[in-house]
Amino acid sequence: MAAVPAAGGVARGRGVTSFQRKAAAGSRLAAVAGTRPSVRHGQLLLSSGLPSLDCVLGGGVAVGTLLLIEEDKYGLYSNLLYKYFLAEGVVCGHDLFVASAKEHPDNILKELPAPLLDDTHRNELGEEATAVKSEDFQDSMKIAWRYQNLPKMEASPTTSTKFGHYYDVSKTMSPELFQSIKCHSFYLPEELSLQAKMKTCNMNSAYTRLLESIHRIIYQEGFDGSDPQKKQKNILRIGIQSLGSMLWGDDICSSDTPEDVHSLTKFLYVLRGLLRKSLSACIITVPAHLIQNKAIMERVTNLSDTVVGLESFIGSERETNPLYKDYHGLVHVHQIPRLNSLICDVSDTKDLAFRLKRKLFTIETVLIEGSNTKDVFHFNLAKEQMNIALLSN
Amino acid sequence: MFAELNELLDASPQRPERGKFTLLRDTRTDGSFLVHHFLSFYLRAGCKVCFVALLQSFSHYNIVAQKLGISLTAAKERGQLVFLEGLKSCLDLLFAEEEEQSGHPSPLQFISESTSNLKALFDFVRTSLTPADSDSWKGPVLLVDDLSVLLSLGAAPVAVLDFIHYCRVVVCSQLKGNIVVLVHSNEDSEDEENELVVNSLCHHSDLILWVEGLATGFCKDVHGQIKIIRRVSLELTAEQDLVQIYQYKIQDKNVTFFARGLSAAVL
After folding, report:
1. In which pathway does it act (chain B) (predicted)?
2. What is the per-residue burial (b if ≥16 Cβ within 10 Å, else e) of A26-53?
3. Residue of B nearest to A347 (CA)
4. Do B60 and A340 make contact, defined as CB atoms within 8 angstroms?
């Protein structure tokens, strides 16, 4: 007799497994347009506007974190990344906060690249991609075997359209797309005349004003999530251009022993606090090559979440190097944040380069081909063997 | 809490040592996994912990602690854990309305003052670790995640060293508790202030755990190497410091340690 209820218990136990989808939590997270939860740490991710960069950064930029871009020498490509980040916000319907001391934010917004949403564009690019593929096929015998099993970075616009879009750098975004978007702008020369209310904390006045402005928008527009919003939740994308440059009134770029060493790091710390408490993500470009004092960059990196450096080949001897003939520069991923976990998503390949095609800007793994394939291949093999030898010592 | 690290350090939460100063130092890699280890270790051991978390938010530490089998929220409610969330109290300090401020100074008061004086932070540590009559926790523990942040926030190196010295006197000597501090150090970075702090802390530590990224660069299966330095020389015997070197790999909920060159991927 006792066996019957026990069997029932087992059956019930089977029915209620622990493998249940957290439907409620999932749907709540997915409610914000243009985001997806991370597999690793459950944090909401945004696209940086460049799917190949998202891939390298472990899926995207997490909400509440800071993406720091070290500018290339002439700021050409870092500016593109900056615009991609904002353009992605426009396409996803996020609110924008554009801060600059150089260009007027309105002009920056006017020059955002046009998204490739139509099928015609896709076909066009599809043709381009297939052309490239056939070329690849012909070259396939030349490519060293060690590259064959490498994961391909998503470089062609065929996959998901909801998260991460592709942009045509040759066209600017049509003004209709902006109509539903809330843009907050911060142009330093205009703001300096206003009176600051915040405590100055021995911080550069430009930074104080910028923080005050970000704080005001986060709390006024309800991005802090403290009062439950009636309307749809949205993300604030913050973009700050050339932070730390002379135009922000900072002397870290102009002097070896700057008087004001702590302004930038203090700013980043407070900004980190603001971001962590709100539904927002921030991109900052910093002219790192101008900062002579290495200690400052070390501290800045420590206070940022994701740090990516761009090194363009313009004016460097690598421009004519046959190794890099297909690329316009190198990408250095300096730091990937550890969020809610002990480990971080590091991509397996560290040799990354970017290239600016006619319309698309992409980040790819450096593939070495051409006349000196053999030498390079042997060099790499020797390097790997050396690594193993050193490891085993 | 990583069982393998406990074995290497010959420590166990059943019998935590008293009066020790442990320095966690990381170079070219992130040593925060050690902070998570010591946080869960001392909470398991039943010590009263004051955690000065300057770098990350509470939820980050809480989620990682949950993976290691500890709930920080529960520990806070029990009164076992006093958590100072630097990012939050910094915002409170900067954006608070003048009239709202109570007489109680913020622990991070030094940010808004011209003199970099960490007295408020020290007072916070002292009041939170001084045992009341009612609680029955074992020795108090001070844990600091990233002392280097204090330098970034404008504190002078001497002020940081003073702060640590005062804490040692109160926590290690008077209350017979432990201090665990994380610092970044990178000889290449030319950060003289930071090097000054790191070097002088090294001289005073009873135990140094020095985590370094591999000199040969990134590796998927070996995340870095850890140097465990036991400062036997501090006890004024004529012996040398004991140094052990291991390599480690961080996994989702655990860290494995192995002798150099003996990672599972190489064997």
Report:
1. tRNA modification; 5-methoxycarbonylmethyl-2-thiouridine-tRNA biosynthesis
2. eeebeebebbbbbebbebbbbbbbbbbb
3. B220
4. yes
A338/B32 CB distance under 8 A: yes
Task: Return the CA Rg of chain B.
Answer: 19
Q: Nearest CB to B91: which of A262, A265, A274?
A: A274
Chain A's closest residue to B219, CA to CA, is A348
CB contact under 8 A, B149 and A302: yes
pLDDT bin (cut points 50, 70, 90) of residue A157 is very low
pLDDT > 70? residue A352: yes
The mean pLDDT value for B41-61 works out to: 95
Residue of B nearest to A260 (CA): B154
Select the residue from B26, B39, B91 to test the A interface by mutation, using most A Cβ atoms within 10 A.
Answer: B91
Which residues does chain B have within 8 Å of residue A211's beta carbon, measured at their own beta carbons? Answer: 94
Per-residue pLDDT band for A293 (boundaries 50, 70, 90) equals confident
pLDDT level of residue A26 (50, 70, 90 thresholds): very low
Mean pLDDT (whole number) for A293-307: 93
CB within 8 Å: B152 and A302: yes
pLDDT at A223: 86
The interface predicted TM-score (ipTM) is 0.95
Question: Min CA distance, B91 vs chain A (Å)?
Answer: 7
Q: For position B190, what pLDDT does the model report? A: 84
Angstrom distances, CA of residue A228 to CA of A223, A225, A234: 10, 6, 12
Closest chain A residue to B110 measured between Cα atoms? A201
Q: Which residues of chain A lie closer than 8 angstroms to B216, CB-CB?
A: 386-387, 390-391
Closest-CA residue of A relative to B26 is A302
Q: How far is residue A60's CA from residue A69's CA, in Å, rounded to a whole number?
A: 14
Res A382: pLDDT: 62
Identify the DSSP state of B252.
S
Chains A, B: CB pairs < 8 Å: 120
User: Does A393 touch chain B if contact means CB atoms closer than 8 Å?
Assistant: yes
Answer yes or no: is pLDDT of A199 > 70.
Answer: no
| Chain B residues close to A215, C-beta within 8 Å | 95
A280 vs B contacts (CB less than 8 Å): none
Nearest CA in chain A to B262: A392
pLDDT at A85: 95
Residue ranges making up the domain that contains A334: 25-391
pLDDT tens profile A210-236: 999 999 999 888 888 766 555 667 899
Q: What is the pLDDT of residues B201-254, one digit of tens each?
A: 999 999 999 999 998 888 888 999 999 999 988 887 778 889 999 999 999 999
Gap from A225 CA to chain B (nearest CA, Å): 15
CATH number at residue A198: 3.40.50.300
Strand blocks (E) in chain A: 35-37, 44-46, 61-62, 66-70, 95-100, 113-115, 167-172, 183-187, 236-240, 280-286, 306-312, 329-335, 352-356, 361-365
- The answer to whether B190 touches A294, Cβ cutoff 8 Å, is yes
**Structural domains in chain A (count):** 1
CA A369 to chain CA mean position, Å: 29
**Cα separation of A344 and B254, whole Å?**
14
Contact A334/B at CB under 8 A: no
* pLDDT band at residue A177 under the 50/70/90 scheme: confident
Distance from CA of A390 to the nearest CA of B (A): 8
User: Is A4 domain-assigned?
Assistant: no
User: What percent of chain A stands above pLDDT 90?
Assistant: 39
The torsion angle over the Cα atoms of residues B38, B41, B45 and B49, rounded to 10 degrees, is 40
Q: What is the DSSP string of A7-24?
A: HHHHHHHHHS-S----HH
